[in-house]
Amino acid sequence: MKRGQGTGFGDWIKANVQRKGKQARIQTKKGGQWSVLKEFPENLPAGVMSIQYNNATRKVNAFKPLNGVFTFMTKDFARKEGKPPVPKHKVDNWGNDVWSFIAVLEILEDDTFGGCVVPHLLRHKFEPIIIKEQDGEEKQALGTAGYGKYTEQLEEYLQVNGVWNKTFPYRDNPLPMLLKAILRENKKFQGQMENGWITSLYTSSSPEEDTDFDGDDDTPWIE
Fold it and tell me: Is residue 122 part of a domain?
């Protein structure tokens, strides 16, 4: 039996990218060997960044910044082509059922990374709540479940997208309904990235600490 060439998009890894004309090569460890890429986006910049890399085919499918503050907008939820988004299920290390979904965010207004999409993993922490209408009638509405960091991250995402204060009917799968409302709101918001992942979202200006990432070749590696 022989190993296949691999057809997946690959894993997100940190890499130092060098460009020379229409060629590109990457280094995945400081002081390590360089690998010449066979396929990569034409707008792949030089510098230290996060890349979605298939090692078998030496192909970069996507790239995103490691660190910094950027302007984002929700582009979609991860889903199969032509299908509505649905929550994904897995069992964690403690045997608990975990439901989650991925918001696909696009970076705006950045010379180096503008147009890049960043996956933002969120827990599907929704539950039905009872609300009273003005006439006193009780109705079931969509609410967030419990407390903790995963619920807070979900509420943070809903807030910056302008739908947190809206009332939605409860659905076992509220994702299509929420996506439609979020795209209608068309909100821009700020996001802090660390090691290639979004750590916080907010509607105000950038945090006071200077964490901008310009993507230059001399950007230091984060050990």
Answer: yes
Predicted TM-score (pTM) of the model is 0.82
Between CA 164 and CA 172, with CA 167 as vertex, the angle to 5 degrees is 95
In a domain, 129, yes or no: yes
Residue 212 domain-assigned?
no
- Alpha carbon distance 156, 168 (integer Å): 17
Structural domain of residue 82, as residue ranges?
68-202
What is the SS3 assignment for 164? coil
Query: DSSP 3-state helix, strand, coil percentages of the chain (rounded to 5)?
Result: 10, 40, 50
User: Torsions phi, psi of 158, nearest 5?
Assistant: -65, -35
Q: Give the rounded distance of the alpha carbon of 220 from its chain centre.
A: 23
Q: What is the pLDDT of residues 100-146, one digit of tens each?
A: 999 999 999 899 999 999 999 999 999 999 998 888 889 999 999 98
My answer on whether 44 and 154 are in the same domain is no
Number of domains in the chain: 2
Tell me which residue of 122, 92, 117, 124 sits closest to 196, measured CA to CA: 117
